[in-house]
């Protein structure tokens, strides 16, 4: 059987996985002035576009993605030379078209917006987010970060306990999905650096720099995972 080079939309996953970061950054920076002016309303209104971008990325690029060292979600798969991930044979979800993706997407979004948003909100508080004020800012920021770094992981690895043990211990071999997650986490942490600096710039307020760091770190991590550190493990 010939290798499948298109997805359910008839498009190349290799092309789309490279357009994905462009869509993310374009969407974010177009609404950045509004984010600085009114963080809560902008964060709320941009959750849906971000969700649609991530869902499209998951369905069109990550469906049945072949992960390194045998971590795969289909029976027969092939890695493309460019670092993008393509299945050789579609599974039942792919063969079912859009309808076959509704359940996994819905469950992944549910876990992302409940469990992981709660966890990231707690982490933001622990790392210095305002505890008595700006609650909507923090929760919506956690939602954005969860959709960025957690949703693709959940969609690819589902509830595989072994893989999540490796993810949480940072021993999972890096690929475009896991490296993007690590990059988003590092970017969020680095984004806190400008906040206490005495520059008196409007974009320094919470959570503009945190979210900017998350988006930039996610994109850098994704490309690192595709071309630089693919198959390697984090070394502490």
Protein described:
There is one protein chain. The chain has 236 residues and is an all-alpha fold. The chain has one domain. It has eleven helices and two strands, in the order ααααββααααααα. It has a two-stranded antiparallel sheet. A hairpin with a 5-residue loop joins strand 1 and strand 2. Helix 1 (13-30) runs antiparallel to helix 11. The protein is globular.
Short note summarizing the structure:
With 236 residues, this protein is an all-alpha fold. The chain is built from 11 helices and 2 strands; from the N terminus they run H-H-H-H-E-E-H-H-H-H-H-H-H. Keywords: Endoplasmic reticulum, GPI-anchor biosynthesis, Membrane, Transmembrane, Transmembrane helix.
List the helices and strands and how they pair.
Blueprint (H helix, E strand, L loop, with lengths): L12 H18 L1 H6 L1 H7 L1 H16 L14 E3 L5 E3 L4 H4 L3 H28 L8 H15 L1 H7 L3 H8 L7 H15 L17 H20 L9
Antiparallel strand pairs: 1-2
Helix pairs in contact: 1-4, 1-11, 3-7, 4-7, 4-8, 6-7, 6-8, 7-11, 10-11
Order of helices and strands: HHHHEEHHHHHHH
- Placed side by side, the strands forming the largest sheet appear as 1-2
Low-confidence stretches: 66-95
How many domains? Answer: 1
Radius of gyration: 18 Å
What class would the helix/strand composition place it in? mainly alpha
Distance between the termini: 43 Å
- Range of helix content: 55-70%
- Total strands: the figure is 2
Mean pLDDT metric: 85
Question: What global shape is seen?
Answer: globular
Count of DSSP H/I helices = 11
Let me know the largest β-sheet: 2 strands, antiparallel
**Percent strand:** under 5%
Membrane topology: Multi-pass membrane protein
Protein name: Glycosylphosphatidylinositol anchor biosynthesis protein 11
Organism: Terfezia boudieri ATCC MYA-4762
Pathway: Glycolipid biosynthesis; glycosylphosphatidylinositol-anchor biosynthesis
């Amino acid at each position: 059987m010939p290798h499948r080079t298109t997805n359910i939309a008839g498009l190349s996953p290799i092309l789309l996985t490279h357009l994905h970061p462009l869509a993310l950054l374009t969407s974010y920076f177009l609404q950045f002035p509004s984010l600085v002016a009114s963080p809560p309303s902008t964060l709320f209104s941009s959750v849906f576009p971000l969700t649609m971008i991530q869902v499209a990325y998951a369905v069109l690029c990550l469906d049945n993605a072949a992960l390194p060292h045998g971590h795969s979600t289909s029976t027969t798969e092939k890695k493309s030379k460019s670092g993008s991930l393509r299945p050789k044979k579609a599974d039942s979800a792919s063969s079912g078209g859009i309808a076959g993706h509704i359940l996994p997407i819905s469950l992944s979004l549910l876990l992302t917006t409940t469990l992981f948003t709660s966890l990231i909100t707690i982490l933001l508080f622990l790392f210095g987010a305002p505890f008595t004020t700006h609650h909507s800012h923090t929760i919506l920021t956690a939602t954005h970060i969860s959709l960025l770094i957690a949703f693709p992981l959940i969609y690819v690895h589902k509830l595989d306990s072994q893989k999540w043990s490796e993810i949480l211990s940072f021993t999972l071999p890096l690929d475009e999905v896991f490296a993007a997650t690590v990059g988003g986490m590092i970017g969020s942490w680095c984004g806190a650096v400008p906040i206490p600096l005495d520059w008196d710039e409007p974009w320094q307020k919470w959570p503009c720099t945190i979210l900017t760091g998350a988006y930039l770190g996610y994109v850098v991590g994704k490309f690192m995972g595709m071309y630089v550190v693919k198959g390697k493990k984090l070394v502490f």
